[in-house]
Prior knowledge:
It is globular and about 55 Å long. Helix content is 34%, strand content 13%. The strands form 2 sheets. Strands 1-7-6-5-4-2-3 form a 7-stranded mixed β-sheet, with helices on both faces. The protein is an alpha/beta fold and 388 residues long.
Amino acid sequence: MTEPDLCPPIPSCASGKDPRDETSVDAAAPSRVQDLFIGRHVHFSFNTRTAIRVACDALGLTPGDEVLVPAYNCGSEIDPLLHAGLSVTIYPVGRDLVADPDAIARRISPRTRAVYVTHYFGFLQPKLAEIRALCDINGLRLMEDCALSLLSGSRPAAGRIGDVSFFCFHKFFSTPGGSALVINAGDLPSAPTFDRPPLRRTEFKFMARRILGALIGIDRLRQAKRALIKTSTDQIIQLSGKKQDIPGHYYFDPDLRGRRMSRLVAKTIQRTDLDAAIQQRRRNWQIYQELLVRVPEAEPLIQELPHDICPHSMPVLIPDRDRIVSELQAVGVDVTAWWAGFHQGLDWSMAEDAIVLKNSALSLPLSPGLTRSDLSKIVALLAARLAV
C-alpha cells in the first residue's frame, strides 16, 4: 500500500494562457507557500535533485544528449543530469553572475538538447528572455533553476520561462528538504512520477539535530558538524591531488529517484508567512549593504536590490576565504564558503571566472530571525579577520 500524495498537483488554470507569459499571472500577492504555485502544473518532490532527475525523463532527454550548464554551479544540480546518462558541457558565467546568450550560443553543438540556467542568490537572470529565444530557435529545452529564487519575481514564485523549473524549500525554511517541479511547456507530460515515499532517515536526522540543538546549543552542534565536514574535505584533497571535491552527499543518490515530499515539510511550509519572510530578508540585505561600505576588502557581488527580489543571502568576494570562514564558524557565525568544491565530472579548464567565485565567495546569512545588532556583529567579526 502506497502512501497518499501529501501535496497533490495543483491543476492548471482553465484560461488557456501560456504559463510562460508573466502578464497572464494573477496580480494578487500570495500569502502561503502553496499559493506560489496556484494555476501551475506543480509536483512536490523529496528534494531538488530528485526533481531534476525526473525532469530529465519528462523532457525526453536520453543518454548521450548534451545539456549546457553554467560554469558557476553547486555540483549537486549537475549530478542528476549525469545520472540520466546526459553529456554535460559548461558555459561561462562572469563575476557579474549573468548568463550570456552569446556565450551559450557558441557552445551549442549537434548533440545539444537543453540549456540549464540558474538564478543566483535569489536574483533573476536579466537575459533569460533572450536565452529562451535562443532555445526556441535551436529547438532546445530550457531548464530553469529557481532553488535560490523561490520568493523572487513580480508575483513569487518566478520560474515561468523555462520548459521546466525547480524550487527548493529548505533553502528558505527550516525543513528536511522539499522541492517543487513546475512543468511550463504545454507539450510535456503534466504528471511526472513521484510515486515513492520520502526517505524517513532524513526526517529522523533533521529531528535529531533539532533535539540536540536544544540540548547542547545550536552553535556547538554546527561547529561539530563543520569539523567533521572539514576533516572529510581535507582527506579528499590530500588523496586526489585535484581541485577540492564537492561534499560526497552532493552527488546524486539513485535511491532518491521518484521520491515525493514528506508530510513534515508540507506542514512546515504551510505555516510560513511569506510576506514577513520576504520583507525581513530584504531588510537584512539592505542593512548589510550599508554596513559593508566600511569593509572595503569585502566586495559585494550584487550592488542593487530590485523591488521584486527576495535575496537568499548576501554574497561577497573576500581574500583568503576558507580561512576566514573557518574562523567565523568557530565563533558561531553561520557564514558559508559558497559552493566551494568542484564536481569531479566536469571540465573546469575554461571556467576562470567561476573558479574565482567558487574559491572566493562568502555567503552572509539573511535569516529573518537576525536583528540589526546581529548583522553588525557579523560584519565587525568579518572586518576584524580581514584585517589580520
